[in-house]
TrEMBL record:
<protein>
    <submittedName>
        <fullName>Cytochrome c family protein</fullName>
    </submittedName>
</protein>
<feature type="domain" description="Cytochrome c">
    <location>
        <begin position="25"/>
        <end position="116"/>
    </location>
</feature>
<keyword id="KW-0349">Heme</keyword>
<dbReference type="GO" id="GO:0046872">
    <property type="term" value="F:metal ion binding"/>
</dbReference>
<dbReference type="InterPro" id="IPR009056">
    <property type="entry name" value="Cyt_c-like_dom"/>
</dbReference>
<dbReference type="GO" id="GO:0009055">
    <property type="term" value="F:electron transfer activity"/>
</dbReference>
<dbReference type="Pfam" id="PF00034">
    <property type="entry name" value="Cytochrom_C"/>
</dbReference>
<keyword id="KW-0408">Iron</keyword>
<dbReference type="GO" id="GO:0020037">
    <property type="term" value="F:heme binding"/>
</dbReference>
<keyword id="KW-0479">Metal-binding</keyword>
<dbReference type="InterPro" id="IPR036909">
    <property type="entry name" value="Cyt_c-like_dom_sf"/>
</dbReference>
C-alpha cells in the first residue's frame, strides 16, 4: 500500500502534466502543439505563454466543464474530435478547421484536461 501511495504521489508532482485516465494523449506534447498551432491567438489558455486571445472562449477549467461549445458533451474523445473537426461537430461555429491530425488533437485534449 505504501509503495502504491508513493508511486501515485510522485506521478502527480509539480510540473507533471497528466491527462484524463484511460485516454491516450500526451499532455506535455499537447502544450507544445497548442503553441505550434497558435490556439492562443483566439483563446486564453492557462499555462501557455502568450495564449491570451479573446476571440474564442477562455479555456480556464475546460477539463471540468459539462459541455464543449455549449452543445457537445465534454469527454476526452469529444474534445479531441472537436479540436480536429469543429465544423463537422457544429457546422457554422466560429472555430475554424485547422487540419489538426487525430494524434495531435488527442495530445491537445490531454493538455486541456489538465486545466481543472
Amino acid at each position: 500500500m505504501i509503495l502504491l501511495l508513493g508511486s501515485v504521489l510522485t506521478a502527480c508532482g509539480p510540473g507533471k502534466a497528466a491527462g484524463p485516465v484511460n485516454f491516450t494523449g500526451d499532455a506535455r506534447h499537447g502544450a507544445e502543439l497548442i503553441r505550434q498551432y497558435g490556439c492562443g491567438g483566439c483563446h486564453d489558455i492557462p499555462g501557455i505563454a502568450g495564449a491570451d486571445g479573446n476571440v474564442g472562449p477562455p479555456l480556464h477549467r475546460i477539463g471540468t466543464r459539462t459541455y464543449i461549445a455549449g452543445f457537445v458533451r465534454n469527454s476526452p474523445e469529444n474534445m479531441a474530435f472537436w479540436i480536429q473537426e469543429p465544423q463537422k461537430v457544429l457546422p457554422g461555429n466560429a472555430m475554424p478547421s485547422m487540419g489538426i491530425p487525430q494524434k495531435d488533437a488527442r495530445d491537445i485534449a490531454a493538455y486541456l484536461y489538465t486545466l481543472k
